[in-house]
What does this fold into?
Amino acid sequence: MARRILPGLPLTLGITLVYVAIIVVLPLGALIFKAASLGPEDYWRIVSSERAMASYRVTLLCALAATAFNLVFGLALAWVIVRYRFPGRRFIDALVDLPFALPTAVAGIALTTLFASNGWFGAPLASIGIKVAYTPLGIIIAMAFTSLPFIVRTVQPVLEELDPALEEAGQTLGASDLEIFLRVILPQLAPALLAGLSLSFARSLGEFGAIIFIAGNQPFETEITALLAFIRLEEYDYPASAAIASVMLIAAFTMLAVTNLLQARALRYTVKG
Amino acid sequence: MKIRLDTVVKTFDTFRAVHGVSLDIESGELVALLGPSGSGKTTILRMVAGLEFPDGGAIYFGDENATDIEVRHRGVGFVFQHYALFPHMTVGENIAFGMKVSKTRRSATEISGRVEHLLRLVQLEGLQDRFPAQISGGQRQRVALARALAVDPKVLLLDEPFGALDANVRRDLRRWLRKIHDELGITTLFVTHDQAEALDLADRVVILDKGKIVQTGTPEEVCRAPASAFVMNFLGDANRLKVTVSGEKAQIQNVTFDAPDIADGPAELYFRPADVTWREGGHGIQATIARVIDRPDSRRVLALTVDGQSIEFDAAPEFPFRAGAHGYVDIRRPRVYPV
It folds into this structure.
């Protein structure tokens, strides 16, 4: 083996591999092993049952909506924090991390209180006919709340590094503000934005604590997949629970793989020729 | 397009302010704004571009008052110090950008034809599909120039255009820029802190210090008749000796020099290291050689006058004297400035 300058490769590599094996691979392996204890027919029956299908639909659609909301709002938030100096900016910057730090159940209870039909937000919304708590809208809000920091925190550093001269160059070449945003700024944010979106989406798919308080958890209506897996667990139906969980695992893997591909594509200009 | 700056003022919290600068740039002229960092030269350039707005005074493009025209409507081509190429666009896309966002609609073939023409002009044929990260610094700088020229600017503005390049590339590029300017005849204003670059490239040099113009003139004028000790020092190596003026004559030891329009009292005598002859005997300022430094094409001699003031001068490689030798310094083209 060639001599190395940097020390510690065997030690750190060893620790890393042990860590990955014990913390990541083993539980996932157990999950797949458990799900595989079902025959293919049973497996298919469980994962394609009407109630499961409905839960996928609710989870997926709500996660998409929450991510779309975060895309716009998170980008705007990152933009404001990076670009402008105003009193309270550091406070807002710190506040962004709150959903990370807050126990999700606490967030769920707080959101439910706010959006219940007699809550601060819920009451006025109810008076104009919008019901949030115990509807998919409530799920979307809970998902958006817990996954917002992903977008802000991935976009923020890239935005800070953007050379202001690029925008000035766009201006001297006659581009409008919108053109500069769409053609100069957005393409450079795209890889970070994509990473943030996929993290935010993955978190929304897997969110549990914040949602179950506000969702109402009506099967076929407001029951998310994670909750269905939990219900099967409560019923000591471990294989069924594992089967449903395996569907979420596959979905998460597929999505991360697609994101990586897209990201590599968006970053192709950084490759030296 | 003729540009006129009329007592332009810009104040910042920092030192990069501009205090009442007036300047006329003739159509087709190539003018250098030369000054040390913080002299306000880049601020002036940015105000001409519209990237900065003056607090007072006015900027005219031809007869039109352009002071409040937004940068995107001002019709200037700007080459940024670090080029500011769009990293996610290829060389061709960078050059085409201005044409694509222009209100004048151009067909795709027209745009690609013009991109090819510009690439030929800046001698980068065949590189249009590369990304900026994949080409050299000198090539990037030429892409930046092609991109600025693509929108048919009335005025070309360059901010330290060669600042980030190697010495050899710099010299080649500035000769080449002069050639391009002569071909296109576009009014060009560029900022530099490098006096050799300004003298090499410009029709006229504007020398700035602390936000004010201290001298304007052709390279010949500013070199032969520096208006102040600052200009004398800034344009190149200069020796300084303390002298006493009385009756428009400056005296050091028993040597006198003409000092027209200089008030009586202490003053300073300036001269270039190349304008010195060393004599073993006879007339001149008495001095002793302290050190001799060899250079590829000459010798640099460090000497001390009898009263302890240091002088540096250039001599031929055959200069025979060594440290400790006594002699006389004869000065050509002396200039006397008040203290």
User: Anything to note?
Assistant: The two ends of chain B are 41 Å apart (CA to CA). The interface with chain A takes residues 49, 51, 70-73, 76-78, 80-82, 84-90, 97-98, 101-103, 130-131, 133-134, 147-148, 150-151 of chain B (CB under 8 Å). The longest helix of chain B spans residues 167-184. The domain at 3-231 of chain B is CATH 3.40.50.300 (Rossmann fold).
